[in-house]
Design goal:
- With 296 residues, the protein is mainly α.
- The chain contains eleven helices and four strands, in the order H-H-H-H-E-E-E-H-H-H-H-E-H-H-H.
- A two-stranded antiparallel sheet has the order 1-4. Strands 2-3 form a two-stranded antiparallel sheet.
- A hairpin with a 2-residue loop joins strand 2 and strand 3.
- Helix 1 packs across helix 9 (221-234).
- The radius of gyration is 19 Å and the shape is globular.
């Protein structure tokens, strides 16, 4: 029972990171019907920001945390302005290729300007400390990740439900044509959605980088794929589904890694994808059914 609880908390910690990334992807998909494969750059670029700060002043995470979040927001907004705004009226395939293009350009820039090899930086000293609660040991990083993730999700829900900014985003996600007729400015709404998605990715990046402690040209690829999978599991375009999918994916990874025999632990990813395939046989739409609106 003790091991089960420990793994549950570990799964929630991992799943919180995936949920934040999936929620940002779902926001962008809602207003543009775009699966943004450039979203991983909101982790790659902040990783190098963290590395640069570490070189300059050491591993001061009081500076790194806000810098990472700000960098993620700026990267997300810049991506929308530089790349996606100019192909907004194009086909879905064109927009998808554009997102891949942004990813490969960013990777190439860091390979040529910095190095193709990973650059390590100092992790927080408390990252793997543990605390005992009721006889069960928990890693502090998991508890902090869960707490900050839940606070961020509550803040996001409040913004989307109780502010004009949030109402405009939800209206655009529901029906962009009707929203524009009601006076919603498309450029402002899309830019705001990218900014909010960048903020969510920035919070996720903080905990991802605390765990990995390295920057490399493809640093955002793995978390991006996890976020995409979580968003699809939850029901692509559903904000609630994105969060559920993120936590479900994190829990599935942790429990499968713990339950599979030692010589099969390397097959965890394959086992996760098998479970996802079985889920889609039963529920092809994911956890939450989403009504599709035409993209504008």
């Amino acid at each position: 029972m003790t091991e089960f609880v420990q793994q549950f908390v570990d799964g929630l910690g991992r799943g919180g990171i995936y949920a934040l990334l999936a929620l940002g992807l779902a926001l962008i998909f809602g207003v543009m019907h775009l699966v943004n494969f450039a979203h991983g750059e909101t982790i790659t670029v902040p990783a190098y920001v963290a590395f640069g700060i570490s070189l300059a002043v050491g591993g001061n995470w009081w500076l790194i945390v806000p810098a990472v979040i700000v960098a993620a927001v700026l990267v997300s907004v810049a991506t929308e302005f530089v790349a996606f705004r100019w192909v907004r009226g194009s086909s879905d395939f064109t927009m998808l290729l554009t997102s891949f293009g942004v990813h490969f350009v960013v990777v190439a820039v860091f390979v040529m300007a910095v190095s193709p090899k990973a650059k390590n930086f100092e992790k927080p000293g408390w990252i793997f400390n543990t605390v005992r609660v009721g006889g069960v040991s928990f890693e502090i990083v998991d508890l902090v990740t869960i707490g900050v993730t839940l606070a961020t999700l509550v803040l996001t829900v409040s913004i989307l439900r109780k502010t004009l900014f949030g109402i405009a985003i939800r209206a655009a996600a529901e029906d962009f044509d009707a929203a524009r007729l009601m006076g919603v400015r498309s450029n402002r709404v899309i830019r705001s959605a990218f900014a909010l998605a960048g903020f969510l990715a920035g919070v996720a990046a903080v905990f991802w980088l605390m765990r990995t402690g390295e920057a490399e040209p493809g640093a955002g690829l793995v978390p991006l794929l996890k976020g995409v999978i979580a968003a699809i599991i939850g029901g692509l375009g559903s904000l609630t589904g994105a969060v559920l999918g993120g936590f479900a994916l994190g829990l599935a990874e942790v429990y499968l890694r713990a339950w599979l025999p030692g010589n099969l632990a390397g097959l965890t990813e394959g086992a996760v994808f098998l479970l996802i395939a079985l889920l889609f046989i039963v529920r092809p739409q994911g956890f939450v059914t989403v009504r599709r609106a035409e993209r504008v």
